[in-house]
User: Which sequence fits this backbone?
């Protein structure tokens, strides 16, 4: 690292970063709630404290809902967009850091060792809902920008930090930020990647399968038809399809995964009474889509699988299940590994940490698909924490990951945008 780069790394405000993360975790910013907006307002205040130029606006929800790239699951009466920036358009490239404030529910609090809505630092780990997914990464982005400012570095272009809502249920906030602008020459979504550089993001489309039976009193159940029993062969066929698809679609950056494109049945609801045959069943899930795969072609494979089971069952032929595509729609996205942004992050990570760079594709859906596919911006996933700790009790990120990520982002911004 040269003198300017060392000054930036040394300027990182560790205590400020931890305080900011604590402040954001304390806001239970579940998607579609007023707290989601409160978190955005808190981020705007934080950005201003860190010396960024901040813009806030109310999302134009009707326009977003009508956009072909929009997907959502949770109702919202309003949404707030927040963008902080450092520098201005010039001779250098512009770079986006993107992070979301919405989190998933904490679930049964009895399963948590540490309170979910406050940070707890112990043994180098920081516990709390959103520490990994992804308020920790968002704070890294903000404090990387602060380090650039505090070190007195003038950028040739502009660093833009998008703080967005609605990522967990489809990406509404990032689509709003894209349509609002500004655009850029590259983007990094600070999702948890274990500090691996991820130029690939798998796709995931939500689906709902409704199976119909015939109600009957439980004492004469053979005179009815159980929708639960009719679901069993459909589920087995879906699992077979999952195995076949994951054997067919292989990529070297997913080498450690046997199932990089899962088909997950997440919820099943059936019946109305314990002593009645279930007259209907509704199963909801997510359908993994491979890198480079046409999502519409992928959908047709599930539709054909369901149709084959239906054709082999007399009851299902007469009472065909209903398959719907709904909610979150995350298409796969990719950026070439030799792209300047990818290579800049790789070199910056090694210089910032002394560790070798690791490349890997991510199996989860994320807002990379909107930045890369809809906006046409070369995009990479890179951030602190492991997604395996997210969406579960005792979510945590390590302090080392937060600091390593912040240093890497700061160096990447300087090197990709350029020093004036």
Assistant:
């Amino acid at each position: 690292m040269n003198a300017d780069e060392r000054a930036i790394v040394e300027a990182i405000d560790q205590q400020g970063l931890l305080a900011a993360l604590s402040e954001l975790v304390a806001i239970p910013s579940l998607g579609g709630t007023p707290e989601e907006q409160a978190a955005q307002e808190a981020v705007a205040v934080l950005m201003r404290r860190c010396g960024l130029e901040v813009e806030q606006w109310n999302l134009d929800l009707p326009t977003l809902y009508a956009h072909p790239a929009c997907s959502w699951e949770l109702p919202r009466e309003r949404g707030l967009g927040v963008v902080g920036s450092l520098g201005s358009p010039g001779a250098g490239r512009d770079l986006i850091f993107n992070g979301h404030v919405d989190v998933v529910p904490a679930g049964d609090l009895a399963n948590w060792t540490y309170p979910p809505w406050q940070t707890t630092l112990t043994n180098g780990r920081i516990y709390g809902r959103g520490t990994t997914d992804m308020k920790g990464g968002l704070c890294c982005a903000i404090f990387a920008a602060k380090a650039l400012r505090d070190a007195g570095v003038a950028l040739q272009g502009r660093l833009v930090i998008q703080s967005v809502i609605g990522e967990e249920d489809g990406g509404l906030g990032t689509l709003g930020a894209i349509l609002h602008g500004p655009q850029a020459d590259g983007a990094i979504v600070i999702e948890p990647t274990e500090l691996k550089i991820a130029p690939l993001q798998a796709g995931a489309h939500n689906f709902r399968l409704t199976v119909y039976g015939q109600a009957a009193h439980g004492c004469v159940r053979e005179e009815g038809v159980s929708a639960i029993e009719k679901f069993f062969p459909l589920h087995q066929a879906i699992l077979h399809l999952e195995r076949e698809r994951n054997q067919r679609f292989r990529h070297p950056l997913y080498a450690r995964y046997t199932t990089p494109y899962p088909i997950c049945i997440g919820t099943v609801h059936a019946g109305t009474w314990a002593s009645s045959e279930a007259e209907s069943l509704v199963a909801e899930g997510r359908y993994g889509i491979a890198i480079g795969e046409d999502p519409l072609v992928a959908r047709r494979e599930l539709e054909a699988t369901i149709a084959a089971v239906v054709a082999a069952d007399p009851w299902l032929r007469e009472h065909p299940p209903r398959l719907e595509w709904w909610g979150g729609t995350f298409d796969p996205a990719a950026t070439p590994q030799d792209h300047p942004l990818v290579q800049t992050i790789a070199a910056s990570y090694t210089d910032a940490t002394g560790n070798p760079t690791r490349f890997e594709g991510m199996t989860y859906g994320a807002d990379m698909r909107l930045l890369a596919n809809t906006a046409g911006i070369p995009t990479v996933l890179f951030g602190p924490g492991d997604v395996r700790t997210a969406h579960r009790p005792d979510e945590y990120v390590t302090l080392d990951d937060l600091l390593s990520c912040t240093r890497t982002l700061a160096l990447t911004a300087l090197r990709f945008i350029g020093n004036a």
Remarks:
- The chain has a mean pLDDT of 97.
- The first strand starts at residue 53 and ends at 58.
- The chain has twelve helices and 15 strands.
- The chain has two domains: 3-201+332-417, 203-330.
